Amino acid sequence: MALYKFAALPDVEALKAPLAAFCCARAIKGTLILAPEGINGTVAGTPEAIDALADYLFAHGPFGDRLAGAEVKYSFADSAPFLRMKVRVKPEIVTLRAPQVDPNRQVGTYVEPEDWNGLIERNDVVLVDTRNDYEVGLGTFQRALDPKTANFTEFKDYVARHLDPARDKKVAMFCTGGIRCEKASSYLLSQGFEEVFHLKGGILKYLEVIPETQSRFSGECFVFDERVSVGHGLEPGHASLCRACRHPLTENDRQHEDYHEGISCPYCKADKAKHEAAAERQRQMELARQRGHAHMGDAAGSDAERRRREKKARAEQSRQANKA
User: Fold this and answer.
1) Alpha helices, DSSP H only, in the chain?
2) Residues 196-225: pLDDT tens digits?
């Protein structure tokens, strides 16, 4: 379940621990970000656990009805896409650092996925991808401008340098799930842009409901979990992550001479410190595999606990044998 909602949550500190306990008690994993302006995150668990969490967040939990109407998307994975559960409190649920922006007060015009193609094919519409450069590199909409930002806070500088409210009368924007565009569209309106549009539900909703034969999206959409990317129908994509720098990699990237599985890639080829750490991690993973043990996350913790129990049982058997 991926969700976000801009809502007044002045009691985020009090909400954090109960929410984390609720999720952990049901083996839900992922990340939820709480801030005074709302909630954002993606989590995974059994269908029953996710249904229970939805009820807790949107109906019968301590949030009351403050999260009613949240943007929520459901999808399925063959294996757990997250290793642990984290609930974090931050100043913003998506960081822009623009105090004048308030999506609860003003945002751009929402455009349903079914109407998106018609809008972005118009010659009088400037189409902007609000995501970061590494996300755009995996896939984007045809004709979209790439701000080439390393993080969302740089989007303000891009607007100042490349967009002009006197010239760009109609601006359409999109992002992964819709949340960044809530702030981006609110920011453009605060800067004097008159007509601002954004894709409701983001790329993920578009890929879910628009047939591939009608799609204007090329490539795959980066997602912030172990799937790395998804394609049309939200099917898992073909991208992977560099374990040294966490940059998403295409098949062409993995054919590059600077790519070494688990150790380095073309995007971090000069960072020797990252390579050494990644090489040691890769070595530990290989040793774990040779021994038939898990290496990461809860699986590794469970594996270690199993080995401790087995060792304790053998010691107890030895002790009993010695007594006999």
Assistant:
1) 12-25, 47-55, 113-120, 133-136, 155-162, 179-190, 202-209, 251-254, 272-291, 297-323
2) 999 999 999 999 999 999 999 999 999 987
Phi-psi region of 49 (alpha: psi -120 to 50; beta: other; left: phi over 0): alpha
**Does residue 157 lie within any of the structural domains?**
yes
Catalytic residues: 175
Q: Going by C-beta distance under 8 Å and a sequence separation of 6 or more, which residues neighbour residue 68?
A: 58
**CA 33 – CA 4 distance, rounded (Å):** 9
Q: How many domains does the chain have?
A: 2
Give residues with Cβ within 8 angstroms of 231, minimum separation 6. 207, 220, 221, 237
Residue 175 identity: C
Of 170, 204, 276, which is closest to residue 4 (Cα–Cα)? Answer: 204
Query: What residues of the chain score a pLDDT lower than 70?
Result: 278, 282, 285, 288, 292-324
pLDDT for the residue numbered 97:
94
Quote the pLDDT of residue 305.
Answer: 43
pLDDT at position 314 is: 53
Q: What is the C-alpha separation between 194 and 25, in angstroms, rounded?
A: 48
**125-142 pLDDT, tens digit each:** 999 999 999 999 999 999
User: According to the model, what pLDDT value does residue 249 have?
Assistant: 93
Q: What is the predicted pLDDT for the residue at 201?
A: 92
Domain span holding position 129: 109-219
Domain end among 89, 120, 149: 89
Task: Produce one character per residue of 18-56: b if its CB has 16 or more CB atoms within 10 Å, e if not.
Answer: ebbebbeebebbbbbbbbbbbbbbbbbbeeebbebbbeb
Residue 324 to residue 318: CA distance in whole angstroms = 10
How many other CB atoms are there within 10 angstroms of residue 258's CB atom?
Answer: 12
